[in-house]
Amino acid sequence: MVLKLPKGAAMNKPGRRGPYRKTNQRRAEIIQAALAQYATSDAGGPTLKAIAEHVGIAESALLYHFGSREELFWAIVRARDEQDRFAERGKLLDDSDFKKLGAMIAHNAETPGLVKLFLEFAVAATSPTHPAHEYLRGRYADMLQTLSAGLQHAKGMEPERADWLARVLLAATDGLQIQWLLNGETDMRKDLERLIDLALDKATAN
């Protein structure tokens, strides 16, 4: 059975897509404005009003385009996460790539509000019902696989040992950020790079 469109329906179709494209464009503008505001804020992060003013819209319009505060902040976290990837997907890491972990965590220190926002989502997303749960499960699985494969490739490490060390490096990255947020004195880059140097030097040890 072939369904026929009502007369004039084809002309209405572009009109329905237009607002959708406009909304997506506005969402992208809001996310970029939020990232810019977080780059200059303290650990408390910017207010919704500051983000809205950066875009040039009313504060209520932010939630209109995202549905809720949680969805807005979650979109910001995802965008930040994609921008700050330390390795290309599918690339085998070498020794120099592992050093980028230190640079990445040093870059994070420039945006304490985003670090705090991410860690809050990471804790909340341990609940299977949280909207970020599946994304963060996949994110950590992807990072663990990338690190483990890199350790096996760069150092000839056994898979089980490489998996273990990958977990330790990621745990250290998150843990150092928590300590830094708490006291502001932890040198995250120095500590992580010392750990990486030690790990790589001892990579093939029993």
Question: Could you please describe the fold and organization of this structure?
Answer:
The protein folds into two domains: 63 residues, Orthogonal Bundle (Tetracycline Repressor, domain 2); 123 residues. The protein is mainly alpha-helical. The protein is built from nine helices and no strands. α1 crosses α4, α2 packs across α3 and α5 runs antiparallel to α9.
Write the layout of secondary structure elements.
Blueprint: H1 9-38, H2 48-55, H3 59-66, H4 69-83, H5 95-108, H6 112-124, H7 133-155, H8 159-183, H9 188-201
Kindly give the count of domains: 2
Q: Average the pLDDT over all residues and give the rounded result.
A: 82
Q: What integer value in Å does the Rg equal? A: 21 Å
Encode the helix/strand succession as letters.
Answer: HHHHHHHHH
How far the N terminus sits from the C terminus, by CA atoms, comes to: 69 Å
Say how many strands there are: 0
Shape: elongated
Number of helices: 9
Overall helicity? over 70%
- How is the biggest beta sheet arranged? none
Low-confidence blocks of residues:
1-17
Structure classification: mainly alpha
Throw out a few tags for this protein:
single chain; 206 residues; mainly alpha; Tetracycline Repressor, domain 2; 2 domains; elongated; disordered N terminus
Quick take:
The chain is mainly alpha-helical. 73% of the residues lie in helices and 0% in strands. The chain has two domains: 16-78, Tetracycline Repressor, domain 2; 84-206.
